[in-house]
Amino acid sequence: MEIKDLKFDDKGLIPCIVQDADNDKVLMLAYMNEESVGITMEEKRTCFWSRSRGELWRKGETSGNTQHLCSLTADCDGDALLAVVKKDGPACHTGTESCFFNTLSGETGEEHFTLDDLYGLLLGRKQEMPEGSYTTYLFAKGREKILKKVGEEATEVIIGAMKDSKEEMIYEIADLTYHVMVLMAEAGITPEDIRKELGSRHIIDKKVKQETMR
Fold first, then answer.
1. First and final C-alpha spacing in the chain
2. What is the pLDDT of residues 153-171, one digit of tens each?
3. 173: exposed, middle or buried (C-beta count within 10 Å: 0-12, 13-18, 19+)?
4. CATH number of the domain at 3-87, please?
5. Domain 110-208 of CATH type 1.10.287.1080
6. Contact 39/56 with Cβ under 8 angstroms?
7. What is the pLDDT of residues 50-74, one digit of tens each?
């Protein structure tokens, strides 16, 4: 199939689902026009048509979260596309790995739960501030309260470790992780920011190891 065979809508657009090549996770849904499809294929990185701005939009052009194209496939009717990509950063503007984190029906399931899911939930609480939510309470009280809770939970982790209780340590580390991520959401720090920092340290460690082995 060629670009000319695709079925664009009356606005000249075609939906494109973006999927992570590493774990098959659906990252986002965006739209392409004939030109952006051609650019995506030629440059081997996703390029979309921004319906809100009315212009071409190369993913990562300003954020650095580029998506490198592995394959671009049309469905059986030629009216939808699937882009499989290797990504440099989160797909969602909120900082989460995927744009799909708001559950409408069913359970996410423990085996599928990620810190990105939690971060997306926290951002939702920060924006909507629903009554009766503990997370809403923390955001309403502000950074001083959040920092106090981070300190308290860190102490609880230490106490659990001193007791040599794995079960208690898991429970308290989970509490600490939650409160640290509330702080991250409050401060505008994303999970990807932390991954990049840890990744840079890993690279430094490898360089040091290589130097030592010489």
1. 53
2. 999 999 999 999 999 999 9
3. middle
4. 3.10.20.810
5. yes
6. yes
7. 999 999 999 998 888 899 999 999 9
